[in-house]
Amino acid sequence: MVEFDLDFQEAIRELEEKGAKTTAADWLARVEEEYGTAPLIYKKLEDCPEALISHLLYKNAVNQMSSLEPRVIELISLAVGAALRCDHCTAYHMQVAKKMGIPKEEILEAVLVAGLLANSSVLANAYRVIPDAAKEPCGAGCSIAGVPAKKEE
Q: Which domain of life is it from (predicted)?
C-alpha cells in the first residue's frame, strides 16, 4: 500500500506548487515504482488528474485513520476485488499482498471467503426476487412460483 507520508495540508501545498497534472503523474509513478504497476483505475483516472488525486487522498486518509493492520486492509481489498470479479483489482491486490509477505495460504483463504460471500449474495438476492421461495418446501418436487421442478428421468 502506498503511503504518501503527507498530511492533507502538505498534499494541498504540493498540488498548488506542481499543479494537478504533475502531482497526479508523480503520485502514480510512486505507486508503479513501489509495486511494478498501478491499478487500471489509477491509470484511467490519470486522464482526469483531479479525480486521481482525490481518490488517492481519500484512500490515504482511510488507511491512516484505520486501526486495521495494513496486511488486513490488503487482504480485504483482495477479497473485495475477487468478490466483485474485477480481474485487474484481484491481480493487483494479489501482487501487493505477495510483496507485503502475506503467505499464499492467507491469500487463498481471503479469496475463498470472498467466494463464499459472493455465492451467498447470489442466493440471498434470488430469494428476495423469487416470491414466497422461503415458504415452499424444497426437495425432489421443489417448485418455484407454482412451477414444479423438472424431474430427472
A: Archaea
